[in-house]
Design a protein that fits this description.
Blueprint: H1 19-70, E1 74-76, E2 82-87, H2 115-131, E3 147-148, E4 154-156, E5 161-162, E6 168-170, E7 175-176, E8 182-184, E9 189-190, E10 214-215, H3 240-248, E11 253-255, E12 261-266, H4 292-295
Parallel strand pairs: 3-5, 4-6, 5-7, 6-8, 7-9, 8-10
Antiparallel strand pairs: 1-2, 11-12
């Protein structure tokens, strides 16, 4: 069929179309095919690039994983937030941190110190313990070390022993056995316990103190305590000067020529200076003194 007019081309058209219309359509389809081919080529290239990117991303992801495993990280709180106050290092046997610079050593320092700094401190302590010396304390001995055995006790000096609680032993071989006792000087022995309510001599007053005695010697190794100031309170020590003053104002037995006490004789006052005795009660026994009232 020739000389066919161009039919109407629409969705509901029933017209016959001619060859020129089909040719135009074929040309359009061929152009589309070419474009699709070009797009397919571009998509293929893009696919290769995406594949390469995926490989790079995978490599980066692996690197990040390795970096995370090797990194030192802050710990996390229970809610998953970062705990900037805590870092836990891995390693079942602990982790060594090397190449640390010297940290500041001061009262307010929060720096980490390294091994050489600790070694210097340890060496200083060991030297002090070995020689028993500091700038203001010196000791010279090859004897055994001091022993502070009681709770809160202090022992200073070779072979000194502070065995009692809160006791102090100072000196070569000094020994404080009683609680609260103090042994001062080489060979001193502090073994007497506190009064614990017992009555003291002469005054017959009870003393509640639980502190052990202070000893400056031992039996057969007594020491004088010199330069003692005169006591002023009831519990102060007195010196010889005070005792002599008391003796001078006291009535004393006479003494034999060898210096021993003559309990059969009492002389009042100085020789040639008679002494009156006042407020004498009337005598009763044949050996009692009589007062003037009885003699009148």
């Amino acid at each position: 069929i020739t000389h066919v007019a161009a039919g109407r081309i629409s969705a509901d058209s029933t017209d016959a179309v001619n060859g020129s219309q089909l040719y135009a359509t074929n040309q359009a389809v061929e152009s589309i095919d070419n474009r699709v081919g070009d797009v397919e080529g571009d998509v293929s290239v893009l696919g290769d690039r995406v594949t390469n990117v995926e490989g790079d991303v995978s490599s980066i992801s692996n690197d990040l994983g390795e970096l995370a495993d090797q990194a030192v990280k802050y710990d996390t709180n229970d809610d998953g937030s970062v705990n900037y106050e805590s870092v836990t290092l891995a390693g079942g046997e602990g982790t060594t941190i090397t190449n640390l610079a010297d940290g500041e050593v001061s009262e307010g320092s929060s720096d980490v110190v390294n091994g050489s700094q600790l070694w210097a401190v340890q060496n200083q302590i060991n030297n002090s313990l070995t020689t028993g010396e500091t700038k203001y304390f010196k000791a010279n001995s090859e004897a055994a070390a001091a022993r502070a055995e009681g709770a809160e006790s202090v022992a200073m000096g070779p072979e000194s022993v502070a065995a009692g609680d809160n006791s102090v032993a100072v000196g070569n071989g000094a020994r404080a056995e009683s609680d609260g006792g103090v042994a001062l000087g080489a060979g001193s022995q502090a073994t007497r316990e506190g009064m614990n309510g017992a009555e003291e001599a002469f005054s017959n007053e009870s003393v509640a103190s639980t502190q052990g005695a202070v000893s400056v010697g031992s039996q057969g190794g007594e020491r004088q305590i010199t330069h003692v100031a005169g006591g002023t309170e009831a519990t102060d020590a007195v010196n010889v000067r005070q005792l002599k003053s008391v003796q001078a104002g006291s009535v004393n037995y006479d003494r034999h020529s060898d210096g021993s006490v003559d309990y059969s004789s009492v002389t009042l006052g100085q020789k040639g200076t008679p002494t009156q005795i006042h407020n004498v009660a009337p005598g009763i026994a044949p050996t009692d003194a009589a007062n003037v009232g009885q003699l009148q």
